[in-house]
Structure formats: C-alpha cells, structure tokens
C-alpha cells in the first residue's frame, strides 16, 4: 500500500487535490483481484447478522405467517440484487468508487449532498450493529468473568457500564480489521461469511430437534386480515430494502475491485438473494424451535443463547455472533463512509484514517436508544429507503440514459471538466433529486397520498430516474466517449 501511494504521488501533483487522491483514483485493471468467490463471501458476511436475524423474526411478530414473511424477503432481495447489478457496472468498468461516480449526476460540488446523506446513514447503521455485537460480548464476559454482571448497576446516558466496556472492545476490533485497508477486509470476509452459515445450520439442527420438526411457527396461520396484509406487505418489502439501501448506492466501492463484470454479477447473485433467503429461514426455524423449547418466540439470538445455561454453547454462539456482526459492519457500514469522508477531505484523509473517523462518529448515535424498538427501526428503515432511492435513480439514469454507459474518467478529477455544470452544481440533478424526495415523502404529509410513502423507495427511485432523464436531455451524449485508460490516471 505504501509503495502504491508513493508511486502515485506525482499524479497528485497534477490532479486537483480537492477532487483526487490515491483512494479515489481509478484502480488499474491488473490490480483488480476480486473474484465471484470474494463477492459471495462478503455478502454472506453482511447478510448474516443480528439485526437481519431479528428483522426476519420481527415480521412474524407483526402477524405475518412464515410463507408471507419469506415472500417479503424473496421479493425484497430480488429487487436489491437487480439494483446492485445495474449500479455496480460502472464501478467494475472504470474502477471508481461511489463518491467519484456521483459527481456526474450532481456536479463535483453538489455530489457532497448525497455523499453526506449516505455517510450519515451508514454511520447510523454502524452504531446499531456495533451495539448488537457488544451485547454478545457482554453475554460472553458475563459467563467467563466473575462479577462482570454486577457492573450493570452503574450507567451513563442509559448505557450500563458492562455493556459500555463491551461496546468499546468491539469498537477496537473494527479498528483492527480496517487498519490495513480493503485487502484485509477481503481476507477477513473470506472465512467470516462461511463460518456464520455453518453456525446457523447448527442452530437449525438444534431447532428441528427441539421442535420435532420445523416447529409451531410453520403451522401458525397469518394473523393479518386481507386488508391489513395488503397494507403491511409493501411496507415490509420497503423496510427490508431499506436495510441495504446504502449498499445499492455504494456497491461501486466493491465492484471497482472486480476482475470482470461476470465476477461481480455471479458473486452478488450467490451472495445476496440466496444467502439472505437462507438466513431468513435459519432465523425463522430457530425462533420456531425456541418457541417449542422455551415457550416463547425469542427473536434476539443473544437472549436465546443465554437460555441454554451451557457455557460451551454460549461461548461458541457468542463468538459467532461477534464475527457475524463485525463482518457486516465492516463491509456495509465502514467501507462506504470511509470513502465518503475521503471524498470530503481528500487532502487530509486516506481510507484507513477515514474509516477510524467514521466508527468514532458512530458512538454519537447512542444506538442503545434505537436497538430494542422494532417499530421505530421499521420507521427508520422506511425513511432511509425513501431518502436514498432518489440518489440511486439519478445514478442509474445518468449512466444508462444520459451517458450511454460511457464516462470520460479524466473529467471526474477536473474542475473545468464535464461535471462542472454551474460552478460545480448540476441544478438539473438537484431538481430531479428534489422530485424524488417529494414523491417518496409526500405521503407523510398528505393523508390521501399515504400509499406513496408505503412504496417510498420505489416511488423515489422511479420519480428521480424519469425526471433526471427528461431534465438532462440537452446533455445526452450523442457520440461514444473513448474508453478510459485506467493505468494512466
């Protein structure tokens, strides 16, 4: 990494230092080493986590039957993988991250708006996931360290002292993983994702044995009337999409390392919908087994582990949850804000220092205030989807309609280039973004249009896509731009 930074030092003297540094520069084709295996395992690691486990189980608590809950998961993930395929193409083609690519739609100054929005959302989720992982560490220490649980009598800002220490230790683990950049993350995810799947399947074996079958939840009918189901189902799908709304935007941060388009397409097809559906099944079967074994549907895996009163099960289970949460947090919630912060301060930050700053900011979100309120989490998920959908719509319209799938890479790093627009702001892009936000959120303020908010992510992405394509017609590329020479940048 040090040699690579030194080799590119001369470029930094030529390119605008406010728009360009080593981490934002396009990756040369010969340095793109991620195969479909890497994308499969990184998605395995991100999909299998405590919050995703609780999300699937939470659908049942809302009255969904198992079949209805699984249908919501299948539809949401089919839509997600399609959006990620489409938005990942530019990253794989040009080796550029999201904060650079978005300059085309918003202008090099206007791009900071979606970049900040996405960073805010990713850091929020980092905080929530970190708190979830710290609960597993706290449970493990409670078993191994005498007197550990007695620390709970002390609290600050609503956080018990023992959980606060566990939270700090989990924070340090994140710092260690990201301390050597994307290569360490790639190697970590290679074993972390498959490990979580194996432990999940072990939990399924226990649940089937405890319930002498799939358990009572699979015979439980839906508790929603047809009208209530029609209202709740699209909200559930939108909420599930909201979990990964940031990844729809920043998938180029990962696909820029792809050896080929085929690798990112195949890897994501295996890693996202297939493993997400499998993990939802693991969550539901395990919760069903808990209902049969303990008399209650325990949706929090940490609480479930503590019901066993078995040191061996608790140790291995807690370690798995720690690895699972660390895996999703690094991949989904540290990589994206790290690039965003580098883009904001390219003179002062590089990927590792920006990643450390991002996880430091996550503490300010006081996640323990959010984690145990399922209703609030779903409200937040809907809002996240509504806010980020319009950005995805602009990116897709810009690349596929306005630019005809061709970018001149040099222009991304020049103030006087194609993406200068009006002093760095693409007013047409901002107007289309506003149209998307209006479509996504107008149902919150006008009761007769509430159905639009139910489909906020879909409304936002379609409204911004169409409005941007129409507003940018004068800019539509009429001639094919020569393919970029990545190695020369």
TrEMBL record:
UniProt topology in membrane: Multi-pass membrane protein
Keywords, ordered alphabetically: Membrane, Transmembrane, Transmembrane helix
Coiled coil stretches, renumbered: none
Transmembrane segments: 36-60, 66-86, 115-148, 154-178, 190-211, 231-249, 270-293, 313-339, 351-371, 377-397, 425-446, 452-471
Subcellular location as annotated: Membrane
Family that this chain belongs to: Belongs to the purine-cytosine permease (2.A.39) family.
Name recorded for this polypeptide: Nitrate reductase
Taxonomic lineage: Bacteria, Bacillati, Bacillota, Clostridia, Eubacteriales
């Amino acid at each position: 990494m040090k040699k690579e930074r030194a080799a590119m030092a001369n470029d930094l003297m030529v390119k605008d230092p406010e728009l360009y540094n080593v981490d934002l520069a396009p990756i040369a084709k010969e340095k793109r080493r991620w195969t479909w295996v890497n994308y499969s395992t990184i998605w395995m690691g991100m999909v299998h986590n405590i919050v995703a486990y609780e999300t699937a189980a939470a659908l049942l608590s809302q009255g969904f039957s198992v079949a209805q809950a699984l249908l919501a998961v299948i539809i949401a993930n089919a839509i997600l993988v399609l959006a990620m395929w489409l938005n990942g193409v530019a990253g794989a083609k040009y080796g550029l991250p999201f904060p650079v690519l978005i300059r085309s739609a918003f202008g090099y100054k206007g791009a900071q708006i979606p970049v900040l929005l996405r960073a805010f959302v990713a850091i929020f989720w980092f905080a929530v996931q970190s708190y979830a992982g710290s609960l597993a560490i706290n449970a493990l220490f409670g078993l191994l360290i005498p007197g550990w649980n007695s620390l709970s009598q002390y609290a600050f800002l609503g956080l018990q002292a023992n959980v606060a220490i566990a939270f700090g230790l989990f924070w340090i683990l994140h710092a260690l993983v990201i301390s050597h950049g994307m290569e360490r993350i790639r190697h970590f995810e290679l074993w972390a994702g498959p490990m979580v799947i194996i432990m999940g399947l072990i939990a399924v074996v226990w649940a089937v044995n405890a319930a002498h079958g799939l358990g009572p939840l699979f015979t439980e009918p839906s508790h929603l009337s047809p009208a209530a189901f029609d209202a709740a189902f699209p909200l559930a799908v939108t909420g599930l999409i909201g979990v990964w709304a940031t990844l729809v935007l920043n998938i180029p941060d990962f696909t820029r390392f792809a050896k080929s388009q085929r690798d990112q397409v195949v890897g994501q097809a295996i890693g996202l919908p297939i493993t997400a559906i499998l993990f939802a099944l693991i969550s539901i079967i395990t919760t069903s087994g808990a209902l049969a074994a303990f008399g209650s549907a325990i949706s929090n895996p940490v609480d479930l582990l503590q019901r066993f009163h078995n040191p061996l099960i608790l140790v291995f289970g807690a370690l798995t949850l720690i690895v699972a949460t660390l895996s999703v947090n690094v991949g989904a919630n540290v990589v994206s804000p790290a690039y965003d912060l580098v883009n904001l301060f390219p003179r002062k930050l590089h990927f590792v220092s920006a990643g450390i700053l991002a996880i430091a900011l996550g503490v300010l979100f006081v996640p323990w205030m959010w984690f145990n309120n399922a209703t609030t989490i779903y409200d937040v998920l809907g809002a996240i989807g509504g806010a980020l959908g319009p950005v995805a719509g602009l990116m897709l319209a810009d690349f596929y309609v306005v630019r005809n799938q061709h970018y001149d890479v040099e222009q991304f790093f020049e103030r006087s280039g194609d993406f200068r627009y009006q002093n760095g702001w693409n007013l047409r892009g901002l107007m289309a973004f506003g149209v998307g936000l209006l479509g996504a959120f107008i149902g919150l303020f006008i009761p007769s249009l509430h159905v639009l908010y139910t489909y906020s992510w879909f409304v936002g992405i379609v409204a911004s896509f169409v409005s941007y394509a129409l507003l940018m017609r004068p800019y539509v590329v009429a001639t094919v731009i020569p393919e970029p020479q990545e190695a020369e940048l």
